[in-house]
Amino acid sequence: MDNTFERKLTSVLKEDQRPSGGIWYYVYLKPKWALKVWKHTEYPEAYDHPTVWENFVVPELKEHYKLTDIQVEELKALRYSMPRGRAGQAAYLPNDPTSSKWYISHGDDFPSSLSADAEKKTLVNAFNLIGPVLHNMVEYQTVDHEKMDDKHKEEIQKIIGKVPY
After folding, report:
1. What per-residue confidence (pLDDT) applies to 98?
2. CB–CB of 59/27 below 8 Å?
3. Residue 35: how many CB atoms within 10 A of its CB?
4. Which of 111, 110, 132 has the alpha carbon at shortest distance from 19?
C-alpha cells in the first residue's frame, strides 16, 4: 500500500496530533466511567499498566473517593480491576510512523453501559489513529492479558463501592 499521502500529512502534523501508542483505562469515577489515556508521546514514563495504575489512576481514585492511606495501599494491588488496554504499532521503521499497522488491544470487557464499537472509535480519536484507520492500518485485538481480573473487581468494590461493570 502506498502511504505517500499519509507520510506527507504526518510530517506536517504537530507532535500532539500524530498517531501515538500508549496505555488506556476506563476508570469508574462515580457516577460515570471516564476514559483515561496516556500517550507515549506525552507520558514516556507510562509504559505499562502497573506503572500507569500506581502513578496516575490510584492518585485520581484517592482524590475522587477521598480514600485513606491504608485504602490507597490496598488499591495499588488492584490494577486489573477496571477495563484497560493499549495502542501501538506492531513493527515500524524508525522515523516512519506510517510503515506498519497499528493496533488497539483490549480485554473485550468494556463497561456494559458503553457501546464497544463506539468506544473503539473513541480510542481511535484519543490516540490520533484516524489516518491509519482510513488506510485500513488499525487492528482491534481482544487479548486475554488485557481482561479484568474477577478477584480484583470484587476487591475494589470493597474500597470504592459498587462498580457497574
Report:
1. 56
2. no
3. 17
4. 132
Residue 24 amino acid letter: W
Please state, as a whole number, how many other Cβ atoms lie within 10 Å of the Cβ of residue 116: 14
Grid cell 468494556 — which residue?
110
Counting Cα atoms < 13 Å in the Cβ hemisphere of 39 gives 15
- 17 and 81 Cβ atoms separated by less than 8 Å: no
The whole-model pTM stands at 0.84
Question: What is the predicted pLDDT for the residue at 96?
Answer: 59
Task: Say if CB 65 and CB 160 are below 8 A apart.
Answer: yes
pLDDT tens per residue, range 67-92: 999 999 999 999 999 999 999 987 65
Q: In which residue ranges of the chain is pLDDT below 70?
A: 1-16, 91-99
Q: How long is the chain?
A: 165
Closest-CA residue to 90 (of 130, 139, 40, 41): 139
Angle 69-76/150-160 helices, nearest 10 degrees?
170
Whole-angstrom Cα distance, residue 12 to residue 61? 38
Q: Identify which of 30, 27, 89, 88 has the alpha carbon closest to the alpha carbon of residue 53.
A: 27
